[in-house]
Amino acid sequence: MLDVKSIRKDFPILEQDFIYLDSAASSLTPEQVVLKEMEFYRGYRANVERGVHRWSQEASEEYENAHEEAAKFIGAPSKANVAMLRNTTEGINLVANSQDWKKTDKIVTSVIEHHSNFITWLRVRQRYGTKVDVVRCDTEGIFELADWEKAIDDDTTLVAVTHVSNVLGCIMPIKEIIEIAHEHGAKVLVDGAQGVPHIETDVMKLGVDFLAFSGHKMLGPTGSGGLYIAEHEIPTTEPLCIGGGTIADVSIDDYVLAVPPMKYEAGTPAIAQVIGLGEACRYLTKAGMKNIEEWDLKLANRLLDGLSEIPGVEIYGPKDPKQRVGLATFNIEDMNPHDVALTLDMEYDVATRSGHHCALPLMKELYQLNQGNVRASTYLYNTVEEIDHLISAVEEIAKS
Ligand SMILES: Cc1ncc(COP(=O)(O)O)c(C=O)c1O
Question: pTM of this prediction?
Answer without folding.
Answer: 0.97
